[in-house]
């Protein structure tokens, strides 16, 4: 396929299926499996989930039970801080999962990673951040600088939570950090995930040479922009239509943003990840919950893909409180109607701003009026 001379935008690290593997355990355990499967799998599911203080002082943690509308902050990172990494890491995706007060409906609302926000001053014990305007994905970075492992995750998430709260007025009731590699393991347990690919998509990461061996199909500049095709390597290509993706294909497909047919870049990738997440959860409910051979591995894969702060409520209570929420009814919403609202800021380059309607969406999340907003602004609802 000839190289498309699309405008060179900064290539970003993977955004994993909407970080929402954090939803995985909740939706999988309660999303339609038999009562026996639910009861047998609940302990295994919650045991697999790493729990950690992520919300810090941002959450009151005074919940005795789960009543009323709830908001869960879901964050994917482009590099999970390990035991020795101390350079800080940026959040690659940010989403608020809103649960209606009657616990019948769930909404996923994405926040653009390049959104210009005020990141408050913060001290993590190793390095200080004086506060100021930055892209929202930098909040995790400034919170985690100088730290490693669990400490980096906790402080990065804490500062990001404070930033989101300042932006939206929403104090999350729970939170989760998602390890993107978990997607491959979940699909591996299922064997495949079948979904509709809504536009031709060319991979810039994986291809095959003339001998059928995997090879990189493109040269990537140091700044992350796409430079040129590598002769003799055919990129993996996902044509518009129905596909059943293998674990490696699924992982690759959800990463793509540079060579989308509609040239919608991050918003296209965002939409594809929403579609993939929903397809993954639907298939997990259909093929995994009542399978005695798949269920243990499936719950373990979901559990190992995330680190959760349950906001002082046990995961078991979260699961049973959300029992009416099903993947089929999961509604995903895109800010700015999936269109870029760019602005140039000295020292930061191109950033994104929110439209007035997007600001109304965030108010709707705070006030548990997302359903009404979706009816009034149908173009904000992603086609998944």
Question: Brief overview, please?
Answer:
This protein has 384 residues and is α+β, with helices and mostly antiparallel strands.
Produce the secondary structure layout.
Blueprint: H1 21-30, H2 35-48, E1 50-51, E2 70-77, E3 91-99, E4 106-111, E5 116-119, E6 122-123, E7 128-129, E8 132-135, H3 138-144, H4 149-168, E9 174-178, H5 182-190, E10 193-197, E11 201-208, E12 214-215, E13 218-220, E14 226-229, E15 234-238, E16 241-245, H6 247-253, H7 265-287, H8 295-304, E17 306-309, H9 315-321, E18 331-333, E19 342-345, E20 349-352, H10 356-366, H11 370-376
Parallel strand pairs: 1-17, 2-9, 4-18
Antiparallel strand pairs: 2-3, 3-4, 5-8, 6-7, 9-17, 10-16, 11-12, 11-15, 13-14, 19-20
Helix pairs in contact: 1-7, 1-9, 2-8, 3-4, 5-6, 5-8, 10-11
């Amino acid at each position: 396929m000839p190289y498309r001379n699309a405008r060179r935008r900064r290539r970003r690290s993977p955004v994993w299926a909407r970080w929402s593997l954090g939803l995985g355990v909740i939706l999988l355990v309660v999303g339609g499996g038999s009562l026996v499967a639910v009861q047998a799998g609940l302990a295994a599911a919650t045991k697999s989930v790493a729990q950690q203080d992520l919300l810090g002082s941002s959450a009151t943690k005074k919940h005795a039970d789960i009543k009323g509308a709830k908001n869960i902050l879901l964050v994917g990172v482009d590099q999970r801080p390990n035991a020795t990494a101390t350079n800080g890491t940026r959040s690659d995706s940010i989403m608020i999962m809103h649960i209606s007060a009657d616990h019948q409906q769930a909404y996923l609302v994405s926040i653009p990673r390049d959104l210009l926000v005020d990141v408050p001053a913060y001290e993590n014990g190793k390095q200080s951040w004086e506060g100021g305007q930055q892209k929202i994905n930098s909040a995790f970075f400034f919170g985690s600088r100088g730290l490693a492992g669990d400490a980096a995750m906790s402080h990065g998430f804490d500062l990001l939570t404070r930033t989101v709260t300042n932006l939206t007025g929403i104090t999350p009731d729970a939170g989760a950090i998602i390890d993107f590699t978990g997607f491959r393991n979940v699909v591996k347990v299922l064997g495949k995930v079948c979904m509709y690919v809504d536009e031709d998509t060319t991979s810039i990461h994986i291809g095959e040479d003339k001998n059928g061996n995997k090879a990189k199909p493109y040269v990537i500049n140091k700044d992350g922009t796409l430079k040129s095709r590598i002769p003799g390597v055919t990129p993996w290509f996902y044509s518009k239509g129905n596909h059943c993706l293998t674990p490696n294909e699924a992982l690759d497909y959800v990463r793509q943003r540079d060579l989308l047919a509609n040239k919608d870049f991050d918003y296209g990738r965002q939409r594809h990840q929403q579609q993939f997440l929903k397809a993954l959860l639907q298939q997990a409910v259909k093929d995994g919950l009542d399978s005695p051979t798949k269920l243990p591995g499936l719950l373990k894969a979901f559990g190992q893909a995330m680190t959760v702060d349950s906001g002082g409520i046990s995961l078991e209570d979260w699961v049973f409180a959300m029992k009416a929420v099903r993947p089929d009814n999961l509604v995903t919403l895109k800010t700015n109607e999936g269109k870029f609202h760019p602005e140039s800021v000295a020292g930061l380059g191109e950033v994104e701003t929110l439209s007035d309607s997007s600001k109304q969406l965030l108010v709707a999340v705070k006030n548990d009026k997302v359903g009404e907003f979706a009816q009034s602004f149908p173009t904000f609802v992603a086609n998944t």
